[in-house]
Amino acid sequence: MVDSQYYLPNDIGIAALDCGEAFKLLSPKEKLYAHYLSRAAWYGGLVVLLQTSPESPYVYVLLQRLFRKQAPAQLEAVADAAGLSSEEYQAFLVYAAGLYANMGNYKSFGDTKFIPNLPKFKALVWNSQAYKESPGEMEALWNNCSHLLYSLEDKQKQLGLGDKGVTTYFSGNCCLEDAELAQKFLDSKKLSAYNTRLFKKESAGKHCYEVRLASAVKKGEERRTRCGTYDFDEAVFSVQRGDYAFLMEKVSQNLEKAKAYAASDNQKGMLEEYIRSFTYGSVDAHKEGSRFWIKDKGPIVESYIGFIESYRDPFGSRGEFEGFVAVVNKAMSARFAELVSSAEVLLPELPWPPAFEKDHFLKPDFTSLDVLTFAGSGIPAGINIPNYDDIRQTEGFKNVSLGNVLAVAYATQKEKLTFLEEKDKDLYIKWKGPSFEVQVGLHELLGHGSGKLFIQDEKGKLNFDKAEVRNPETGELISSWYKGSETWDSKFSTIASSYEECRAECVGLYLCLNKQVLSIFGHEGEEAEEVVYVNWLNMVRAGLLGLEFYTPESKSWRQAHMQARFVILRVLLEAGEGLVTLCESSGADGRPDALITLDRSNIHTVGKRAMQKFLCKLQVHKSTADVEGGRALYETYSAVTSDGSHDFLRLRETVLLRKEARKMFVQANTLLKGETVELEEYEATAAGLIQSFTQRFTEDAEKLEAQLLELVSIDAPCWSGKRCLTE
C-alpha cells in the first residue's frame, strides 16, 4: 500500500491570490510594464520543470495537451466513460493542479515526490480528444513519463544527489565529491554556480565535467563568462553556455518589451543587465542588474527575476529560476518603513559584539506587495534579496513581504489545528496572522539583513582588524575568515540555506520581545503579549511539524525552513525550566497524537536567554567562516533520533499521520488586447488553477511545448547515472 504522504489529498486547500484592486489602480503604462514582466517570469518559470526531475517536462506537456483540447468540465465526461469515479477524477485534477503549482512532480516545500492517486490515468489519456487527434504524440509522451510518474523506488521518493534522491542540477553519475570538486573549480575561475548545471562523463580515464550556463546564445562574449576548456585537479572542465536556450530567449524578449514602459533609468538599467545576463549566461550582469534594482526605491510595480534561491540544489549553490511581479500595498508598507527607520536602534540589541555587525546598516527598501505573478516552484511569504553576499554586505538589499499571500496562506480551521491545547487553538487562530506579519518583517529585515562576514579580498585586504576582533565564545582573537572568492554559500554549501533561515528565525523570535517593534506593528499592552506568545508557540509547533520533512533512510532534511524550525524547537526544549513541553499521547480517534505547550511566563526569561546564547553562536560561526564549528553545532541540533527525552523518530510518524497538505495558489493572467492590458482571474479550485495555466501560453503553445520536449530529450541519457549524451 502506498504511503499517503505521496498523494495530494482531494480536499487540499486552494486559494486565489487576489490582486484585482491593486491592478485596477495602475496606469496604462504601468499595466503594460507589469504585463511584459509577467510574461518574462512565466516563460522563465518553465525552466523549473527542467530543474526538478527528468519526467516533469513530459508530464507538463501531456497535461497541457489534454486540457488545451478539453477543459476540466469537458474532460469529466471522458473520465466517466473511461470508468473513473468522481473521486478518481477529482484526484486527477488535484494531481494536475499540483504539478502546475509546484512546476514539477516534487513538492516545492519538502522536495517529496507526489504521484497520481488513481490507477486509470492511462485510460483517461487514451479516451481524450488530444489522443484521438494525435495518438502517436500522446502515446510517446505517456511512454516517456508513465513509469516515473508512479515510481516510488527509494531514490525516486525525494530530491537529492547521488543515491539520496533525484536531481537534474547534476547528471545521474555525479555524487557529493563531484559537486565539491566543481565548486572548487568555479571558485578558482571566479564563476558563480547560480545559473549552472553539472554534467559528468569519462574520457581516456579522466573525469570530464561540462559546466553549462543558462543563456539564450551559445557563442559570444566568451571572455566575460570564461567559457572554454580547463585542466583542473586531474580532471577536465568545459564551461559552455546555451542551457535552457529557447526559454532564456523568451525571457529576454519580454524584458526588452517591458523596457519601453519602465518608469525610471534605474528600471531601464536593471532590465538591460538582466537581458545581458539571460542572453549570455553572465551572473556578473545579473549582479549589475541587481544593483540597479536596489537603487529603484519604492516603485509602484516591483519585480525580480533570475536564478535566485538555492534550496533545491542538493549541494546548495545553484539557483532555481523564479520571477515575480507585484504591486505595492501602501498601508502595510508604511509599517515596514517605520521598522526600517528603527533598524539602527534595534540592531545593537542583537546578542553579538559590535564588531560582528556590519560597519554601516544599509537601509533597504522594505515594502508590502500584492503578488500579480510569481513564477517558480512555490510562493513564499517574504523575500530578502539579492542573495549575492558582496552586494548585501556593502551595497544593500531589499525586503519584500507578500501581503496577499499572507492573507490566505495561513488561514486555519480549528478542527485542523494539530498538537495544541484547546485554549491555545483559539488564540492561535486569532493571532497567527498578526504575529506572522511581525515575524516575517523581523526575519527578512533584521534577520537576513544583519551580521558581518569577515573577508580578506584577493589583494589581501581585510575588512576587520585581526589584532582586535575576538571570538565572544572563547575570548581569543578570531583565526578564520572568508578568503578571495569564497562566499557563505560556497563555504557552508549543504547546510548554508537552512542555517541562515534558522539565524533569521531566531532574530525574529528574539526581537519580537521588544516593545518598540510590537508598537510599530500596532500592538500594545496585553495584545502585544498575545502576539509574542503566538509567535513563539507557532515556532515550536512548526518545529514539530518539520519532522514531516526529514527522511530517516538517508538521515537528511528536505526543507531548509522546517529544518531550521526543528533546530529551534530542540534549543528551546533544551533550555528546560518548563519553557516548552512535548508529550506523546493518544487522540480521541485512538491513534497516536502529541501535545506541545509553551509557558508564556518563561518566554522573556528562559526563552530569551536560550535564543541569546544560540544566536550568538550561529553568528560567530557564520562571520568567521568556521564551517567545522558551524556544521557541528547545526547538525547536532538537526539530528532526529529516538534517543534522549523525546523519541523524534516516533513523533515523526505521528506528524505524518496527522499532517495537512500545504495550500496551492491560483494566479491571474494578464491579457494584452491592442494596447490595453486586462486581468483574467480564476476560481479557487483545482479546475481554476488548471485553466490559468492552459490560458497562460496560448499564442505559441505548440512551439513552446515542442521546444520543452527538445530540451528534455537532449539530456535524457544523462539522468540514468550510466552515461551522458556529452560522451
Mass-distribution shape = globular
Query: How are the strands ordered across the major sheet?
Result: 6-7-8-10-9
Largest sheet descriptor: 5 strands, mixed
Radius of gyration: 25 Å
Please tally the helical runs, counting DSSP H or I stretches of 4 or more residues: 27
Number of strands: 19
Category by helix and strand content: alpha/beta
| Mean pLDDT over all positions | 93
Distance between the termini: 40 Å
Provide the helix percentage.
40-55%
β-strand amount: 5-15%
Low-pLDDT windows of residues? none
Q: What does it look like?
A:
The chain is α/β, with parallel strands linked by helices. The chain has a domain at 329-410 and 421-658. It contains 27 helices and 19 strands. The strands form 7 sheets. The chain has a 5-stranded mixed β-sheet with strand order 6-7-8-10-9. A 4-stranded mixed β-sheet has the order 2-3-5-4. A two-stranded parallel sheet has the order 1-17. Helix 4 packs across helix 9, helix 18 (422-447) packs across helix 19 (488-511) and helix 18 packs across helix 21. The protein is globular, with a radius of gyration of 25 Å. The chain starts with 13 loop residues before the first strand and ends in a 12-residue tail after the last helix. The mean pLDDT is 93.
